[in-house]
Amino acid sequence: xxxxxxxxxxxxxxxxxACFLNAFVxxxxxxxxxxxxxxxxxxxxxxxxxxxxxxxxxxxxxxxxYDANHSVLKAFRGSGLELVxxxxxxxLKDFSSNEDHAMNWVKDNVQPFLPETYIRGITVGNxxxxxxxxELAEALLGAIKNIYSALNNLHLTHVVxxxxxxxxxxxxxxxxxxxxxxxxxxxxxxxxxxxxxSHVGSPxxxxxxxxxxxxxxxxxxxxxxxxxxxNPGIYDSKTKLHYDNMFDAQIDASYAALxxxxxxxxxxxxxxTGWASHGxxxxxxxxxxxxxxxxxxxxxxxxxxxxxxxxxNFLVRAYVFALFNENLKPGPTSERxxxxxxxxxxxxxxxxxxxLKSSSASSPVLSLKVQIFSxxxxxxxxxxxF
Length: 386
Ligand SMILES: *[C@@H]1O[C@H](CO)[C@@H](O)[C@H](O)[C@H]1NC(C)=O
What we know:
By secondary structure, the chain is an alpha/beta fold. The protein folds into 2 domains: about 25-355, Alpha-Beta Barrel (TIM Barrel), CATH 3.20.20; about 360-385. About 40% of the residues lie in helices and about 15% in strands. It has helices spanning about 1-25, 50-60, 70-75, 90-95, 100-110, 135-155, 185-200, 210-215, 225, 245-260, 290-305, 365-385; strands spanning about 35, 60-65, 80-85, 120-125, 160-165, 170, 180, 205, 235, 240-245, 270-275, 320. The strands form 3 sheets. The protein has an 8-stranded parallel β-barrel. A two-stranded antiparallel ribbon has the order 6-7. The protein has a two-stranded antiparallel sheet with strand order 9-10. Strand 1, helix 2 (about 50-60) and strand 2 form a beta-alpha-beta unit. Helix 2 packs parallel to helix 12 (about 365-385). The protein is globular. The relative contact order is 0.12. Bound molecules: 2-acetamido-2-deoxy-beta-D-glucopyranose. 2-acetamido-2-deoxy-beta-D-glucopyranose (NAG) binds near residues 48, 69 and 71.
């Protein structure tokens, strides 16, 4: 009897532990710290197959796209690259009111490509809150919940994480970082959203652009602070923390707003950050030199695998914006010049990545193969050496 009761006790305990673990095991949608946004608003960029080669040669593992284009999902099959797809804003109102449409979207655009294509996340909507469309803001949470329950019904929530990407427009007072809160008019949508994300274990995705912040207030912001170059930095007297770059400060501003809203344990992931290499006359800091400096220093910042001053235990992870210059993007000239790579696959400027081709004379695929070959040799030598 005693033995039996013991067994049952153990069994019960195991069940409790299993339930506990299950509740806390969440999808890890990001490998390492460096990712890139593969924006495709262009009519001159390489094919998705060539892009896969480019990404593998650059050893960039995490990729975000702004739709769920099937040619891309097919090209990524078996590549080992981890992909976050996006439900475009135009679909949110429909998905919020029609659960079956959300289900159909997941059945058409996610489920058939798993598991060969590593779809790790879905961002439902981009920069919705803080924008001008009130109905869209109202639809956001419903759409997210319906996409999540579709994944849940298909038993995919352990593989695919659901989130949405925000712009800086959701914040008020981001200086100093500790004073940051969610803006009036945004908080009413943000809080239930965070409640849901905290329940399902999703991170907070934020777009961080020191480039835009600098341009909005060049008299008061040191360009070197925005570019991760040597500068006096800023001091946050409330937290007694010092910031020597704006990227870290903007991430900590997000953490401060989350804490103020009651979600101090949520992780922040940077869904976009970058610097334009060319711009209009009133975008004078959009130069190739500054873009290179920002992206080179950002890459170093991410490679050290460290948290921020306020959240030292959360590694900073970011998707850089963007892979290519996108010639069909509307807006100021800078919008079409955020790419680390030119449309033909060659590098825009050197930050340690090699392109699909180095000169216009050579075949892109051939020269990439040579680069992969020499890359493997290099790897081989470094293995032998160590
Ligand atoms: C998907 O991407 C391919 C390759 O870039 C393109 O030819 C096609 O038009 C895209 N499909 C949609 C629906 O956008």
